[in-house]
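User: My instructor asked us to take a sequence, write out its structure as C-alpha coordinates, and then describe one feature of it. I'm not sure where to start. Here is the sequence I was given:
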Amino acid sequence: MLPYWLRDALMPLPALLVMLVGVGLPWALVMLPRRDWRSRPLVVMVLLAAGPALVTGWMLVLGMVGGRTQTPALTWPTVAAGVAALSIGGWALMLHKRRTTQPHPPLPRKPLAFDERLLLLLMGVAVVIRFVSAVWYPFWEYDPLWVYAYQGKLYPLLGYIPQDIGYYPQLVPLSYAYAQLAVGQINDHVARAMFPVFQWGAGFAAYALGAQLFSRRVGIYLAALWVLYPHVAEWSIVGDLEIPLTFGFTGGAVFLLRAWFRDERRARLHDAALAGFFLGVTMWTKPTGGAFILGVGVLAAAELVRVRLNWRAVLPRLEITIVAGLACIPLGAVWYARNVLLGHPAIDFPHPFWPTQAQRSGVEFGWPLLALGVLLAALYTARLGLVPSIVWPHRMTLPEWLALGAGVGVLAAVLLPYLRDHATEEVKRDARRLGWAAL
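Assistant: Let's start with the prediction itself. The C-alpha coordinates for your sequence are:
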Protein backbone atom coordinates (compact mmCIF):
# COMPACT_ATOMS: atom_id res chain seq x y z
CA MET A 1 0.00 0.00 0.00
CA LEU A 2 1.65 3.22 -1.17
CA PRO A 3 1.42 6.36 0.97
CA TYR A 4 -1.09 8.82 -0.46
CA TRP A 5 1.52 11.41 -1.50
CA LEU A 6 3.53 8.87 -3.51
CA ARG A 7 0.38 7.36 -5.02
CA ASP A 8 -0.77 10.80 -6.12
CA ALA A 9 2.65 11.68 -7.54
CA LEU A 10 2.69 8.50 -9.66
CA MET A 11 -0.79 9.08 -11.14
CA PRO A 12 0.35 11.50 -13.89
CA LEU A 13 3.20 9.18 -14.95
CA PRO A 14 1.41 7.95 -18.14
CA ALA A 15 0.69 11.55 -19.19
CA LEU A 16 4.31 12.53 -18.51
CA LEU A 17 5.54 9.60 -20.63
CA VAL A 18 3.30 10.78 -23.46
CA MET A 19 4.71 14.29 -23.12
CA LEU A 20 8.33 13.12 -23.10
CA VAL A 21 8.38 9.97 -25.22
CA GLY A 22 5.32 10.55 -27.37
CA VAL A 23 6.08 14.22 -28.16
CA GLY A 24 9.56 15.04 -26.92
CA LEU A 25 11.46 12.08 -28.37
CA PRO A 26 10.36 12.33 -32.02
CA TRP A 27 10.72 16.09 -32.10
CA ALA A 28 14.17 15.86 -30.50
CA LEU A 29 15.23 13.48 -33.27
CA VAL A 30 13.71 15.79 -35.88
CA MET A 31 15.58 18.79 -34.51
CA LEU A 32 18.94 17.10 -33.96
CA PRO A 33 21.33 16.32 -36.82
CA ARG A 34 21.34 12.62 -37.72
CA ARG A 35 24.89 12.21 -36.38
CA ASP A 36 23.67 13.27 -32.92
CA TRP A 37 21.19 10.40 -32.75
CA ARG A 38 24.13 8.29 -31.60
CA SER A 39 24.50 10.33 -28.39
CA ARG A 40 21.71 9.15 -26.11
CA PRO A 41 22.41 11.73 -23.35
CA LEU A 42 22.15 14.54 -25.90
CA VAL A 43 18.88 13.11 -27.25
CA VAL A 44 17.49 12.84 -23.71
CA MET A 45 18.49 16.44 -22.97
CA VAL A 46 16.64 17.72 -26.04
CA LEU A 47 13.52 15.58 -25.52
CA LEU A 48 13.25 16.78 -21.90
CA ALA A 49 13.04 20.33 -23.27
CA ALA A 50 11.03 19.67 -26.44
CA GLY A 51 8.20 17.73 -24.78
CA PRO A 52 7.25 20.31 -22.12
CA ALA A 53 7.92 23.25 -24.47
CA LEU A 54 5.67 22.01 -27.28
CA VAL A 55 2.89 20.76 -25.01
CA THR A 56 2.75 23.95 -22.92
CA GLY A 57 2.94 25.99 -26.13
CA TRP A 58 -0.25 24.27 -27.30
CA MET A 59 -1.83 24.80 -23.88
CA LEU A 60 -1.02 28.51 -24.11
CA VAL A 61 -2.98 28.72 -27.37
CA LEU A 62 -5.96 27.03 -25.72
CA GLY A 63 -5.67 29.19 -22.61
CA MET A 64 -5.52 32.41 -24.64
CA VAL A 65 -8.48 31.42 -26.82
CA GLY A 66 -10.50 30.57 -23.73
CA GLY A 67 -9.36 33.72 -21.97
CA ARG A 68 -10.62 35.88 -24.83
CA THR A 69 -14.18 34.56 -24.46
CA GLN A 70 -13.93 33.37 -20.84
CA THR A 71 -14.98 29.87 -21.90
CA PRO A 72 -13.19 26.65 -20.88
CA ALA A 73 -11.04 25.81 -23.91
CA LEU A 74 -8.17 24.51 -21.78
CA THR A 75 -9.55 21.09 -20.85
CA TRP A 76 -8.02 17.64 -20.89
CA PRO A 77 -9.80 16.52 -24.12
CA THR A 78 -8.54 19.59 -26.02
CA VAL A 79 -5.05 19.30 -24.53
CA ALA A 80 -4.92 15.58 -25.34
CA ALA A 81 -6.05 16.22 -28.93
CA GLY A 82 -3.19 18.66 -29.46
CA VAL A 83 -0.71 16.33 -27.79
CA ALA A 84 -1.85 13.50 -30.08
CA ALA A 85 -1.42 15.72 -33.14
CA LEU A 86 2.06 16.81 -31.99
CA SER A 87 3.02 13.19 -31.37
CA ILE A 88 1.75 11.89 -34.70
CA GLY A 89 3.32 14.77 -36.60
CA GLY A 90 6.62 14.35 -34.78
CA TRP A 91 6.85 10.61 -35.39
CA ALA A 92 5.92 11.06 -39.06
CA LEU A 93 8.66 13.66 -39.57
CA MET A 94 11.17 11.58 -37.62
CA LEU A 95 10.49 8.48 -39.76
CA HIS A 96 10.79 10.58 -42.92
CA LYS A 97 14.11 11.94 -41.72
CA ARG A 98 15.29 8.44 -40.88
CA ARG A 99 14.47 7.25 -44.41
CA THR A 100 16.03 10.22 -46.19
CA THR A 101 19.24 10.76 -44.21
CA GLN A 102 22.37 8.69 -43.94
CA PRO A 103 22.97 6.89 -40.61
CA HIS A 104 26.31 7.40 -38.90
CA PRO A 105 28.45 4.66 -37.38
CA PRO A 106 27.95 4.21 -33.63
CA LEU A 107 30.25 6.08 -31.30
CA PRO A 108 33.12 4.01 -29.85
CA ARG A 109 32.29 2.80 -26.35
CA LYS A 110 34.91 2.95 -23.63
CA PRO A 111 34.42 1.33 -20.23
CA LEU A 112 33.73 3.74 -17.39
CA ALA A 113 36.49 4.35 -14.88
CA PHE A 114 35.84 3.62 -11.21
CA ASP A 115 35.40 7.27 -10.25
CA GLU A 116 32.99 7.81 -13.16
CA ARG A 117 30.86 4.85 -12.08
CA LEU A 118 30.92 6.14 -8.50
CA LEU A 119 29.74 9.61 -9.56
CA LEU A 120 26.95 8.13 -11.69
CA LEU A 121 25.85 6.02 -8.72
CA LEU A 122 25.85 9.03 -6.40
CA MET A 123 23.85 11.06 -8.91
CA GLY A 124 21.34 8.23 -9.25
CA VAL A 125 20.88 8.06 -5.49
CA ALA A 126 20.53 11.85 -5.32
CA VAL A 127 17.85 11.81 -8.02
CA VAL A 128 15.79 9.22 -6.14
CA ILE A 129 16.08 11.03 -2.81
CA ARG A 130 15.23 14.33 -4.46
CA PHE A 131 12.14 12.90 -6.14
CA VAL A 132 10.84 11.58 -2.81
CA SER A 133 11.62 14.91 -1.15
CA ALA A 134 9.91 16.85 -3.93
CA VAL A 135 6.62 14.96 -4.04
CA TRP A 136 6.39 14.39 -0.28
CA TYR A 137 5.63 18.05 0.44
CA PRO A 138 2.91 20.30 -0.93
CA PHE A 139 3.94 23.71 -2.25
CA TRP A 140 5.15 25.91 0.59
CA GLU A 141 7.61 28.51 -0.74
CA TYR A 142 6.30 32.03 -1.39
CA ASP A 143 6.66 32.31 -5.20
CA PRO A 144 5.41 28.81 -6.09
CA LEU A 145 2.58 29.08 -3.59
CA TRP A 146 1.28 32.44 -4.82
CA VAL A 147 2.31 32.45 -8.49
CA TYR A 148 3.40 29.30 -10.30
CA ALA A 149 1.57 26.60 -8.35
CA TYR A 150 -1.41 28.92 -7.92
CA GLN A 151 -1.63 29.52 -11.68
CA GLY A 152 -1.18 25.80 -12.29
CA LYS A 153 -4.34 25.23 -10.21
CA LEU A 154 -6.29 28.21 -11.53
CA TYR A 155 -6.09 27.31 -15.21
CA PRO A 156 -7.59 23.80 -14.85
CA LEU A 157 -10.33 25.23 -12.62
CA LEU A 158 -11.29 27.98 -15.08
CA GLY A 159 -10.35 26.25 -18.33
CA TYR A 160 -8.52 29.32 -19.61
CA ILE A 161 -5.80 31.88 -18.79
CA PRO A 162 -7.44 35.06 -17.50
CA GLN A 163 -6.50 38.12 -19.53
CA ASP A 164 -5.70 40.12 -16.40
CA ILE A 165 -2.77 37.76 -15.65
CA GLY A 166 0.58 38.96 -16.95
CA TYR A 167 3.83 38.54 -15.05
CA TYR A 168 6.26 35.73 -15.93
CA PRO A 169 5.99 33.27 -18.87
CA GLN A 170 4.12 30.04 -18.49
CA LEU A 171 6.35 26.97 -18.99
CA VAL A 172 6.25 26.00 -15.31
CA PRO A 173 2.61 26.91 -14.44
CA LEU A 174 1.27 25.18 -17.55
CA SER A 175 3.42 22.12 -16.80
CA TYR A 176 1.79 21.90 -13.38
CA ALA A 177 -1.61 22.39 -15.02
CA TYR A 178 -0.87 19.60 -17.54
CA ALA A 179 -0.25 17.03 -14.81
CA GLN A 180 -3.40 18.04 -12.89
CA LEU A 181 -5.59 18.10 -15.99
CA ALA A 182 -4.34 14.62 -16.91
CA VAL A 183 -5.51 13.06 -13.63
CA GLY A 184 -8.60 15.24 -13.27
CA GLN A 185 -7.89 16.69 -9.86
CA ILE A 186 -6.19 19.69 -8.24
CA ASN A 187 -3.40 18.14 -6.21
CA ASP A 188 0.01 19.50 -5.22
CA HIS A 189 1.64 16.08 -5.23
CA VAL A 190 0.42 15.49 -8.78
CA ALA A 191 1.74 18.86 -9.97
CA ARG A 192 5.10 18.33 -8.26
CA ALA A 193 5.63 15.13 -10.24
CA MET A 194 6.85 17.51 -12.98
CA PHE A 195 9.91 18.46 -10.91
CA PRO A 196 12.17 15.59 -12.05
CA VAL A 197 11.71 16.53 -15.72
CA PHE A 198 13.50 19.83 -15.24
CA GLN A 199 16.01 18.44 -12.72
CA TRP A 200 17.08 15.68 -15.08
CA GLY A 201 17.15 18.13 -17.94
CA ALA A 202 19.58 20.41 -16.10
CA GLY A 203 21.79 17.44 -15.20
CA PHE A 204 21.86 16.14 -18.78
CA ALA A 205 22.56 19.66 -20.03
CA ALA A 206 25.57 19.94 -17.71
CA TYR A 207 26.81 16.56 -18.97
CA ALA A 208 26.28 17.58 -22.60
CA LEU A 209 28.18 20.83 -22.11
CA GLY A 210 31.27 19.00 -20.84
CA ALA A 211 30.99 16.04 -23.22
CA GLN A 212 30.33 18.02 -26.40
CA LEU A 213 33.13 20.52 -25.78
CA PHE A 214 35.69 18.18 -24.22
CA SER A 215 35.06 14.53 -23.35
CA ARG A 216 32.67 12.11 -21.67
CA ARG A 217 34.74 12.24 -18.49
CA VAL A 218 34.50 16.02 -18.31
CA GLY A 219 30.76 15.72 -18.88
CA ILE A 220 30.31 13.28 -16.00
CA TYR A 221 32.30 15.46 -13.63
CA LEU A 222 30.44 18.60 -14.66
CA ALA A 223 27.08 16.87 -14.23
CA ALA A 224 28.16 15.61 -10.80
CA LEU A 225 29.24 19.11 -9.71
CA TRP A 226 25.78 20.34 -10.66
CA VAL A 227 23.59 17.48 -9.45
CA LEU A 228 25.38 16.96 -6.12
CA TYR A 229 25.73 20.65 -5.25
CA PRO A 230 23.69 21.22 -2.03
CA HIS A 231 22.11 24.50 -3.13
CA VAL A 232 20.85 22.81 -6.31
CA ALA A 233 19.33 20.07 -4.15
CA GLU A 234 17.47 22.71 -2.15
CA TRP A 235 16.03 24.49 -5.20
CA SER A 236 15.11 21.18 -6.86
CA ILE A 237 12.32 20.55 -4.34
CA VAL A 238 10.87 24.07 -4.25
CA GLY A 239 8.99 24.37 -7.55
CA ASP A 240 10.36 27.78 -8.52
CA LEU A 241 11.88 28.70 -11.89
CA GLU A 242 15.59 28.42 -11.16
CA ILE A 243 16.12 24.76 -12.12
CA PRO A 244 14.18 24.87 -15.44
CA LEU A 245 15.81 28.24 -16.18
CA THR A 246 19.26 26.71 -15.73
CA PHE A 247 18.24 23.77 -17.89
CA GLY A 248 17.30 26.00 -20.80
CA PHE A 249 20.28 28.30 -20.38
CA THR A 250 22.81 25.46 -20.25
CA GLY A 251 21.18 23.66 -23.17
CA GLY A 252 21.50 26.83 -25.20
CA ALA A 253 25.16 27.15 -24.22
CA VAL A 254 25.82 23.56 -25.39
CA PHE A 255 24.70 24.27 -28.94
CA LEU A 256 25.89 27.87 -29.16
CA LEU A 257 29.44 26.95 -28.15
CA ARG A 258 29.40 23.87 -30.36
CA ALA A 259 28.37 26.07 -33.28
CA TRP A 260 31.10 28.55 -32.36
CA PHE A 261 33.81 25.92 -32.94
CA ARG A 262 32.42 24.29 -36.10
CA ASP A 263 33.95 24.83 -39.53
CA GLU A 264 31.16 23.47 -41.72
CA ARG A 265 28.58 26.19 -42.32
CA ARG A 266 25.53 23.89 -42.50
CA ALA A 267 26.38 22.17 -39.20
CA ARG A 268 27.23 25.50 -37.59
CA LEU A 269 23.87 27.07 -38.47
CA HIS A 270 21.99 23.92 -37.44
CA ASP A 271 23.57 24.14 -33.98
CA ALA A 272 22.80 27.87 -33.88
CA ALA A 273 19.11 27.12 -34.51
CA LEU A 274 19.15 24.54 -31.69
CA ALA A 275 20.75 27.13 -29.41
CA GLY A 276 17.94 29.49 -30.37
CA PHE A 277 15.32 26.87 -29.52
CA PHE A 278 16.81 26.47 -26.04
CA LEU A 279 16.98 30.24 -25.65
CA GLY A 280 13.28 30.25 -26.49
CA VAL A 281 12.65 27.66 -23.77
CA THR A 282 14.60 29.85 -21.36
CA MET A 283 12.61 32.96 -22.28
CA TRP A 284 9.42 30.88 -22.01
CA THR A 285 10.49 30.19 -18.40
CA LYS A 286 11.68 33.53 -17.02
CA PRO A 287 12.68 36.89 -18.53
CA THR A 288 16.06 36.87 -16.79
CA GLY A 289 16.92 34.08 -19.25
CA GLY A 290 17.57 36.99 -21.58
CA ALA A 291 20.99 37.22 -19.94
CA PHE A 292 21.90 34.56 -22.52
CA ILE A 293 21.56 37.30 -25.15
CA LEU A 294 24.14 39.37 -23.29
CA GLY A 295 26.53 36.42 -23.38
CA VAL A 296 26.03 36.03 -27.11
CA GLY A 297 26.71 39.73 -27.53
CA VAL A 298 29.95 39.44 -25.56
CA LEU A 299 31.07 36.55 -27.78
CA ALA A 300 30.30 38.52 -30.93
CA ALA A 301 32.13 41.60 -29.63
CA ALA A 302 35.18 39.52 -28.62
CA GLU A 303 35.25 37.90 -32.06
CA LEU A 304 35.10 41.31 -33.72
CA VAL A 305 38.08 42.45 -31.64
CA ARG A 306 39.93 39.21 -32.37
CA VAL A 307 39.64 39.68 -36.14
CA ARG A 308 40.56 43.38 -35.81
CA LEU A 309 37.20 44.74 -36.96
CA ASN A 310 37.30 42.72 -40.17
CA TRP A 311 33.57 42.34 -40.89
CA ARG A 312 34.09 39.69 -43.54
CA ALA A 313 36.08 37.54 -41.11
CA VAL A 314 33.49 37.94 -38.35
CA LEU A 315 30.55 37.04 -40.59
CA PRO A 316 30.57 33.22 -39.97
CA ARG A 317 30.20 33.68 -36.22
CA LEU A 318 27.89 36.65 -36.61
CA GLU A 319 25.58 34.34 -38.56
CA ILE A 320 25.40 32.10 -35.49
CA THR A 321 24.08 34.93 -33.33
CA ILE A 322 21.52 35.97 -35.96
CA VAL A 323 20.17 32.45 -36.51
CA ALA A 324 20.00 31.77 -32.76
CA GLY A 325 18.10 35.02 -32.24
CA LEU A 326 15.58 34.25 -34.97
CA ALA A 327 15.07 30.66 -33.80
CA CYS A 328 14.19 31.75 -30.26
CA ILE A 329 11.34 34.04 -31.32
CA PRO A 330 8.38 31.63 -31.80
CA LEU A 331 8.44 30.25 -28.26
CA GLY A 332 10.53 32.90 -26.54
CA ALA A 333 8.55 35.98 -27.57
CA VAL A 334 4.94 34.79 -27.59
CA TRP A 335 4.13 35.54 -23.94
CA TYR A 336 5.70 39.00 -24.04
CA ALA A 337 3.81 39.85 -27.24
CA ARG A 338 0.57 38.63 -25.62
CA ASN A 339 1.20 40.86 -22.61
CA VAL A 340 1.71 43.93 -24.80
CA LEU A 341 -1.47 43.22 -26.80
CA LEU A 342 -3.45 42.98 -23.56
CA GLY A 343 -2.01 46.19 -22.14
CA HIS A 344 0.37 44.60 -19.62
CA PRO A 345 4.07 45.43 -19.32
CA ALA A 346 5.97 43.22 -21.76
CA ILE A 347 8.36 42.09 -19.03
CA ASP A 348 7.91 42.14 -15.26
CA PHE A 349 11.13 42.07 -13.31
CA PRO A 350 11.01 41.34 -9.58
CA HIS A 351 10.75 44.18 -7.09
CA PRO A 352 14.22 45.36 -5.97
CA PHE A 353 13.45 43.95 -2.51
CA TRP A 354 13.84 40.37 -3.78
CA PRO A 355 17.25 40.71 -5.49
CA THR A 356 18.46 42.54 -2.39
CA GLN A 357 17.34 39.64 -0.22
CA ALA A 358 19.05 37.14 -2.53
CA GLN A 359 22.29 39.09 -2.59
CA ARG A 360 22.38 39.16 1.21
CA SER A 361 21.90 35.41 1.51
CA GLY A 362 25.51 34.52 0.79
CA VAL A 363 24.56 31.72 -1.60
CA GLU A 364 26.50 33.38 -4.44
CA PHE A 365 29.69 32.35 -2.64
CA GLY A 366 28.84 28.66 -3.06
CA TRP A 367 30.67 28.04 -6.32
CA PRO A 368 33.82 30.04 -5.37
CA LEU A 369 33.93 28.20 -2.03
CA LEU A 370 33.56 24.86 -3.81
CA ALA A 371 36.38 25.79 -6.19
CA LEU A 372 38.55 26.90 -3.27
CA GLY A 373 37.83 23.65 -1.42
CA VAL A 374 38.86 21.57 -4.44
CA LEU A 375 42.03 23.64 -4.82
CA LEU A 376 42.95 23.25 -1.14
CA ALA A 377 42.31 19.50 -1.31
CA ALA A 378 44.61 19.29 -4.32
CA LEU A 379 47.29 21.33 -2.58
CA TYR A 380 47.14 19.26 0.59
CA THR A 381 47.44 15.99 -1.32
CA ALA A 382 50.07 17.16 -3.79
CA ARG A 383 53.79 16.74 -3.15
CA LEU A 384 54.30 20.37 -2.23
CA GLY A 385 56.01 20.39 1.10
CA LEU A 386 55.66 24.08 1.94
CA VAL A 387 52.29 25.00 0.49
CA PRO A 388 49.99 23.32 3.06
CA SER A 389 51.83 24.93 5.96
CA ILE A 390 52.10 28.40 4.43
CA VAL A 391 48.79 29.02 2.64
CA TRP A 392 46.60 29.41 5.68
CA PRO A 393 44.75 32.63 6.52
CA HIS A 394 45.72 32.69 10.18
CA ARG A 395 49.43 32.19 9.46
CA MET A 396 49.96 34.84 6.80
CA THR A 397 50.04 38.60 7.18
CA LEU A 398 49.04 41.12 4.51
CA PRO A 399 52.61 41.64 3.17
CA GLU A 400 52.97 37.86 2.84
CA TRP A 401 49.73 37.60 0.90
CA LEU A 402 50.86 40.45 -1.35
CA ALA A 403 54.18 38.72 -1.94
CA LEU A 404 52.41 35.46 -2.76
CA GLY A 405 50.06 37.27 -5.15
CA ALA A 406 52.96 39.00 -6.85
CA GLY A 407 54.73 35.66 -7.24
CA VAL A 408 51.64 34.11 -8.82
CA GLY A 409 51.50 37.05 -11.22
CA VAL A 410 55.13 36.63 -12.19
CA LEU A 411 54.67 32.89 -12.71
CA ALA A 412 51.63 33.53 -14.90
CA ALA A 413 53.50 36.13 -16.94
CA VAL A 414 56.39 33.70 -17.51
CA LEU A 415 54.46 30.47 -17.98
CA LEU A 416 51.64 31.62 -20.26
CA PRO A 417 53.98 32.54 -23.15
CA TYR A 418 55.81 29.25 -22.57
CA LEU A 419 52.55 27.33 -22.76
CA ARG A 420 51.60 29.22 -25.89
CA ASP A 421 54.83 28.16 -27.56
CA HIS A 422 55.19 24.62 -26.21
CA ALA A 423 51.72 23.34 -25.34
CA THR A 424 50.23 20.56 -27.45
CA GLU A 425 47.48 21.36 -29.92
CA GLU A 426 44.98 19.61 -27.66
CA VAL A 427 45.92 21.81 -24.70
CA LYS A 428 45.67 24.93 -26.85
CA ARG A 429 42.29 23.85 -28.18
CA ASP A 430 40.96 23.22 -24.67
CA ALA A 431 42.28 26.58 -23.47
CA ARG A 432 40.54 28.37 -26.34
CA ARG A 433 37.27 26.60 -25.65
CA LEU A 434 37.47 27.40 -21.95
CA GLY A 435 38.11 31.04 -22.77
CA TRP A 436 35.12 31.34 -25.08
CA ALA A 437 32.91 29.40 -22.64
CA ALA A 438 33.94 31.73 -19.82
CA LEU A 439 32.90 34.71 -21.90
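For the description part of your assignment, you could build on this observation: The radius of gyration is 24 Å. Try explaining in your own words what that tells you about the chain.
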